[in-house]
From TrEMBL:
Xref: Pfam families: TPD52 (PF04201)
Keyword annotations from UniProtKB, A to Z: Coiled coil
Protein species of origin: Ancylostoma ceylanicum
Domain of life: Eukaryota
UniProt-listed InterPro entries: TPD52
Family note: Belongs to the TPD52 family.
Name of the featured protein: Uncharacterized protein
GO CC field: cytoplasm
Coiled-coil intervals, chain numbering: 20-47
């Protein structure tokens, strides 16, 4: 049994499910905007990957590894608990 909210969502979906009344110019503009947005997303993914590699290199140079970081996190957590209880 569908709730009123679900029926409302279905009607909204149906109105945008390929049945919209966009002109050719509007369709072209939207497709161009989508293409640009997807390109920007790809660029941001590449930048993020480069920054992650850089961070990993810095950690390596500092002698930080996942085990050391885990130990530091545990120590910080224990300190926070003991400070709270005191």
């Amino acid at each position: 049994m569908a709730t009123p909210a679900m029926e409302s969502a279905d009607s909204v979906f149906d109105s945008y499910n390929g049945e919209s009344q966009l002109s050719e110019a509007e369709t072209a503009l939207l497709k161009d905007e989508l293409r640009k947005t997807e390109e920007e997303i790809q660029t941001l993914k590449q930048v993020l990957l480069a920054r992650q590699k850089h961070a990993a290199e810095l950690k390596r140079k500092l002698g930080l590894n996942p085990l050391v970081e885990l130990g530091n996190d545990i120590n910080k957590g224990l300190k926070a608990v003991t400070d709270t209880e005191a």
